[in-house]
Write a structure and sequence with these properties.
Helix content: 40-55%
Low-confidence stretches: none
Largest sheet: 6 strands, antiparallel
Mean pLDDT: 94
Number of strands: 11
Number of helices: 10
CATH architecture of the largest domain: Alpha-Beta Complex
CATH superfamily of the largest domain: Aminoglycoside phosphotransferase (APH), C-terminal lobe
Length: 332
């Protein structure tokens, strides 16, 4: 989701200062105008004519151990020939750098652009949907074999601890805390084993999966939110994101093809798939806490885009809170 609002402003000077730690084509800095900022700032550029992305964030917004573990997992996936983004080492040979700047302390990495185009910009035909599901199934199969990494991402329980700490700091001790208690208690009853729980992407939505029509294959980017969770969490999130892309009438067929593709690579836990609502509620609460944290600060004379963004995010908080406190039950 989103960093604190103060970090959402375009800052090409900061981006160039950080990019100076890598080799790059100076003429490509004009591509900075196509920047994106949300959970990270990303600025496109070229290196020896090849499209790349600079990704950076303040150290106050990230846990370094999570970022190091992300790069280690990406390296593991690449060693297994899984189609995933490739980190580019800095001039000092590092995949992740930490630098002091006039704007504060920052982490930065560079990645090569993957082949194809985002699934969100493609036609959702059967072949693409099957490949999309198969890509997630393959990811989970490899994750289930990813034993004892040197650096470990946080778990769903760590995330809930972070949510509790964040909500407490914001003085939100009512319905969000009650929702947290419900989810903690319910998740404590679920079985954890090598076949149903492991390192997931968490944000396997169409914007983060690229489809190459020439090879009929997918490539995955943005493991920034990866965590240890039940694999079904990724399935639920991916299917939920597809609902905004597919008509209601077409969705049952879409879901069936995606699940078929997933099953071609990895067995799905149908018992857990039958309780999709509880995984959706985890995502809802986590998103709520992150947005509430980002909205904590306010300034006079905010630009119009920020006023509109704040209004939209406050609307989300209101809608999200409507789900809090409901009894967890099996899907019909």
């Amino acid at each position: 989701m989103m960093m604190k609002l103060r970090h959402l402003f375009d800052n090409p000077n900061l981006a160039q200062m950080l990019l100076d730690n890598w080799d790059y084509d100076e003429s490509s800095l004009e591509m900075f105008q196509y920047y994106r900022i949300s959970a990270n700032a990303t600025y496109p550029f070229r290196r020896n004519g090849e499209a790349c992305l600079l990704r950076f964030s303040p150290t106050s917004e990230k846990l370094k151990e999570n970022m190091v573990a992300e790069l280690e997992f990406i390296g593991y996936l690449r060693s297994k020939q899984y189609n995933v983004l490739e980190p580019v080492r800095s001039t000092t040979g590092d995949e992740l750098i930490q630098k002091s700047t006039p704007w504060g302390e920052y982490y930065a990495s560079v990645f090569k652009q993957v082949r194809g185009k985002p699934i969100s910009e493609s036609s959702f035909d059967s072949g693409l949907l099957f490949a999309y599901g198969a890509s997630l199934g393959h990811l989970h199969k490899l994750s289930s074999e990813y034993i004892n990494p040197k650096n470990k991402r946080w778990t769903h329980a760590d995330v809930l601890d972070w949510v509790e700490k964040t909500l407490a700091c914001l003085g939100q001790d009512g319905s969000p805390m009650n929702e947290l208690k419900i989810l903690r208690e319910y998740f404590s009853t679920l079985q954890i084993n090598q076949g149903n729980y492991g390192l997931i992407h968490y944000d396997f939505e169409p914007d983060n999966v690229f489809y190459d029509d020439s090879t009929k294959s997918c490539s995955v980017i943005d493991f920034d939110d990866a965590m240890y969770h039940w694999y079904v969490m990724d399935v639920v999130q991916a299917l939920d994101s597809l609902k905004s892309e597919i008509s209601e009438d077409e969705f049952p067929r879409t879901e069936a093809i995606f699940i078929e593709g997933y099953g071609s690579k990895f067995d799905i836990d149908h018992d857990l798939l039958a309780i999709t609502s509880v995984f959706g509620r985890f995502a809802n609460l986590y998103r709520y806490a992150r947005i509430a944290r980002s909205l904590e600060e306010r300034w006079e004379n905010e630009p119009e885009w920020l006023v509109k963004l704040r209004s939209r995010l406050n609307g989300f908080l209101g809608n999200a809170s409507e789900q809090f406190g409901k009894q967890v039950r099996l899907e019909a």
